[in-house]
Design goal:
The chain has eleven helices and eleven strands. With 316 residues, it is α/β, with parallel strands linked by helices.
């Protein structure tokens, strides 16, 4: 009598178990997803979130670019809780929101019940409508660029730093020496240009004259109620009000469902590269270095130094 191969029996058992599991999931998980709004219905409003300091915008842009092409998505609501961030990503989000409206004909409503300031407000003016809570922090229209001088720290640590460059402005903003007057003027010209771009975006998005925008574009922050009064937001309301407004703009009325894009866990390659924001916490061999870097950045405020920022002051 031929002896049975235990490995073959194990393989058969795994295949059978996998088939049973797949069958169970098809009857349980899929209906659960539909109930929770994790599958796109024929009359869906896409709900996206923009949270925290804007560093690269990928978490918002990936689902926005993917789902705005879906014919089942009739409108988009972007929930914002952000003090702003780096100039380029803030502008990229603004442009893609505007493209969703103009090219893909999807009404967009930006809503905040917390903070919608600086770069986050820049992004929001790309939407059709802006809705805020009465106490939301809105505005901070302006540009800031911070620098750190560590000369005395290096002297104390007996560290000497220098650079060899091809031009006198290549090491401008270096932390190991004082800034020259011509460098200061160069950076001022840079942020003045970005400021004009910010004002132009607000004026176009809010249908205001640039002069009217500049009257309040000095970095000040408004309450949500004041922002509505001055024309920097459309109405006072909640997230649910924003969904209703988006449904109204898209002609859905009361017959709509909210679609939440499923969160995608980082793959093995992402973990090895450390490409995702939360991937570092899942890599024990990088955790210690990441914590040290984070502590130094927090202590010396280096993470966003030497960059033109659309960021509410005091936020790091």
């Amino acid at each position: 009598m031929q002896k049975k191969n235990p490995w073959m029996m194990l393989l058969v058992l795994l295949l059978v178990f996998g088939g049973i599991l797949t069958l169970i999931l098809s009857f349980t998980v899929k209906p659960f997803f539909k109930e929770r709004g994790l599958t796109v219905g024929s009359k869906s409003i896409l709900h996206l979130q923009l949270n925290g300091v804007i560093m690269d915008g990928k978490k918002l842009l990936k689902p926005l670019l993917k789902y705005r092409e879906d014919n089942s998505i009739k409108a988009i609501v972007i929930e914002i809780n952000s003090p702003g961030g780096v100039v380029g990503p803030s502008q990229e989000i603004y442009e893609e929101i505007r493209r969703a409206r103009e090219e893909f004909k999807k009404p967009v409503v930006a809503v905040s019940t917390s903070v919608m300031a600086s770069g986050a407000y820049y992004a929001a003016v790309g939407a059709d409508k802006i809705m805020v809570a009465p106490g939301t922090m809105v505005g901070s229209i302006g540009v800031i660029m911070e620098f750190t001088n560590l000369e005395k720290l290096y002297d104390w640590a007996k560290v000497s730093r220098f650079s060899i460059s091809t031009g006198k402005y290549k090491d401008s903003g270096a932390e190991y020496r004082p800034m020259r007057d011509d460098e200061r003027a160069l950076f001022q010209d840079m942020i003045n240009d970005v400021y004009e771009q910010f004002v132009e975006a607000v004026a176009e998005g809010r249908e205001m004259k640039p002069e009217a925008v500049k009257e309040y574009a000095d970095g000040r922050v408004f309450t949500g109620r004041k922002a509505v009064e001055l024309g920097f937001a459309d109405d006072v309301g909640t997230l649910e009000d924003a969904f209703d407004l988006a449904a109204e703009l898209s002609g859905l009325g009361d017959d709509y469902e909210v679609f939440e894009p499923p969160k995608v866990r980082p793959g093995l390659w992402d973990l090895l590269q450390g490409g995702e924001d939360d991937a570092t916490t899942m890599m024990p061999w990088k955790t210690a270095d990441a914590k040290v870097d984070a502590a130094l950045n927090s202590l010396l405020r280096l993470e966003l130094a030497n960059k033109p920022l659309l960021l509410m002051p005091g936020v790091h």
